[in-house]
Amino acid sequence: MKDIKIKVTGTTGRITLDRPDALNAVTYQMCLAIETALDTWREDTGVSQVVLDGAGERAFCSGGDIAELYAAGLRWDFGFGQRFWADEYRLNAKIFAYPKPIISFLQGFTMGGGVGIGCHGSHRIVGESSKIAMPECGIGLVPDVGGSLMLALAPGRLGEYLALTAARMSAGDAILAGFADLFIPQAHWPDLIRRLENGETPECLQAASAPAPAEGLAGLQPLIDSHFGGETLGDIQNSLQRDHSDFAKQATKSLRRNSPLSMACAVEIIHRLRGPSASIEKALDLEYRFTSRAMEHGDFIEGIRAAIIDKDRKPNWQYANRNVPAIAVSKMLMPLGENTLKLEETRMSAIKVGFIGLGNMGAPMAANLARAGCIVSGFDTALTSPEGVTIVSDPAAAAQNADVVITMLPNGAILKQVAACVLPTMPKGALLLDCSTVDVESARDVAAQAEDAGILFVDAPVSGGIGGAAAGSLTFMAGGSDTAFAKAKPMFDIMGQKSVHCGASGAGQAAKICNNMILGATMVATCEAFALADKLGLDRQKMFDVVSTSSGSSWSMNTYCPAPGIGPETPADNEYTPGFASELMVKDLGLSQQAAAAVDADTPMGALALALYTRFVEEEEGLGKDFSAMLPRFVARSRPS
């Protein structure tokens, strides 16, 4: 077909991108043609390896043909972009997991979609002219085509730096960052390709390789790690603004060119991927959540207009003040329901899940599992009906023949009752996954019951609140055996952004209790500080600007600020409608003090926080309000005499 050459020479499949005048940008039809060739050669015993290259000297591939996407967006044909990205991402996943060597020769520019084609194979060759970049934030997208995975795996904070600045990597930088494998002088490439076509194996590449020229990223690593290690885009911007070095000035200038919404979401995606749960499937899923919404709700159309169509370089970005609310990021990265990206290799349709406890947290968690393809049966005394979940009459029915039973329950006593009901109905080797927050002893008691019944057990309380449950961005703190944790891992990957194996049974509950004791105490201190600032005549915004970037910084201040209108949107901006209710904080602080008493631990701050929240809920109208509503409580009170 036009624009691409596909052939077999000897035992080597050859794919050459042939649009040199367009820097070999890939069209939708080119993506489909590459996928068809790879599918054919996968089963062809006469093809032992694949070579990918591009025509001309200027580029291997400068990206996807965004002109097609822009035209569709102007027609409000958002479906075209969604189909394009879904099919492109499926191709990226196939290249990543291809069972035969794929050797790509990356001359000139390799950017955006070109990274997805050229940088997921087994042997990625760069030369003197190679320039690799992920510039998507400059056009209102996020680094995609699986590039977010490489960014998350890059050393230190290179991933955030490369995503937000769109810095171009030369050969040595690309090898350092994990986008390439070998530097080979480009004069040797034609001969190497001929040798591969004549039946030589990829081992010949190593023999031809040479040390890559010394480049700049390694020398900048300490500065990059220092400034780009923040939790959010705002943290990174604040760090750069406090530094007057040439590096910080140039980085700030680069950030100011790009879509704030895209950059904020790129940081969040990289952070969700960083760690042992990273996978190409999870990366593509997170990327597709954004790109499928980019035309209608993001800055993509405006970004293309300013960069490619009108070329005025003056995009009218959303959140032009670069203060992107956390809720905006959450909306762009929420699960897509029935429109979730489907990759053949990652479908979960064979997994049968019983979900018991479909309240404010459990219902969206169960719905996310159903959207991912699990067969979910659910039970709750309130008779709630999450989308995609089959409601059954009792816990035993939900557990019948289930591969995994998940519980989200109010306390340890109810957990033990439910466990006694479901364990006899579960098949041997199945998993009971408790996501409730309960006392450590109850978790260990149920673990012992499960072991006696031949059932795996993991206690995995969550952090992230109702918003995190809906967005599929929870953090799971897990206790149990290695085998049980491994079986729970696919569930964690669907329902959350991070899972930590904390140790044996009960360790997950121990981690949650310690975490929430810190949370309760720091929220009290944060509310006290705002109340004191008011009475000292200090402007709340000024206080936030100082504390959020100083030694008093904390999650309670930066992410969940209790002062309305300050920082990211929080329950304080909605009259303290609960994201995490005060009475739940009383419960968790009570568990911390119960555990402290059991092991003779001295926790005076935790005890005081429990006393304050108990009084707030029982005597001061805190019942039914968010735990950050302590702020108006302190504002209204005077110092005790």
Query: So what's the overall shape?
Result: globular
The oligomeric state of the chains shown is: single chain
Give the % helix: 40-55%
The strands making up the biggest β-sheet line up spatially as: 1-2-3-5-7-9
Structural class: alpha/beta
Total strand segments: 18
What's the CATH C level of the largest domain? Alpha Beta
Strand content: 5-15%
- Helix count equals 28
Per the CATH scheme, the topology name of the largest domain is: 2-enoyl-CoA Hydratase, Chain A, domain 1
- The total tally of domains equals 3
Report on this model:
Pfam families: ECH_2, NAD_binding_11, NAD_binding_2. This is 3-hydroxyisobutyrate dehydrogenase. GO terms for molecular function: 3-sulfolactaldehyde reductase activity. It catalyses: 3-hydroxy-2-methylpropanoate + NAD(+) = 2-methyl-3-oxopropanoate + NADH + H(+); a (3S)-3-hydroxyacyl-CoA + NAD(+) = a 3-oxoacyl-CoA + NADH + H(+). This protein is α/β, with parallel strands linked by helices and 641 residues long. The chain folds into 3 domains: 4-337, 2-enoyl-CoA Hydratase, Chain A, domain 1 (Alpha-Beta Complex); 347-505, 3-Layer(aba) Sandwich (Rossmann fold); 512-635, N-(1-d-carboxylethyl)-l-norvaline Dehydrogenase, domain 2 (Orthogonal Bundle), CATH 1.10.1040. The protein has 28 helices and 18 strands. It is globular, with a radius of gyration of 27 Å. The protein starts with a strand and ends in a 6-residue tail after the last helix.
